[in-house]
Amino acid sequence: MGLALSPPRLPVERLWKLFGEAHRSIYLGSAGRIGSRLAWIPMLLLSTQGRRSGLVRTMPLAYLPDPEDDQGYVVVASNGGADRPPAWWLNLQARDVATVQVGRESFLVRAQRAPEDRCGPLWEMLRRRIPPYRIYERIEREIPIVLLRRLPPIASTEAAAPRRARLEVRDPERAGLPDSRDGPRS
Asked: How many domains does the chain contain in total?
């Protein structure tokens, strides 16, 4: 009688990470021409500065336009339903300015958690327009709804900081930061 071996199984979290990396690469590699939609769901790329590493991380996220701000976007910090928030949300809590790419256009945004009085209507809109979000009704932790508000081009020194940080990170040793291949990711 032989021993039956099953193929190794990747945890769902690892599969999502691999999918996200592939999606990001295609989105960036096509300059936003491919990847800005996943089936019927609009997708953006959110680039945040790591709160510990200082390295810039880019994640594809589903979004909807903010119904109260024609220059704003609504995203959900669900982390695929995991029991902890996504790193990009923790990074935004430490530094609320980030870069967003929607299709072929990139710009700076300021992030904030949606006010409590807007969460009910926003969740209803999200569940109606992105039906897979209905699964989050069963999640025990509170899932933040995040509003991304477009900033005027280089409106302030503070808003321009992520650009400088991104340039410094190209030479991690010079910037006094760990090489992204060596250190922990945030």
From this structure: 1
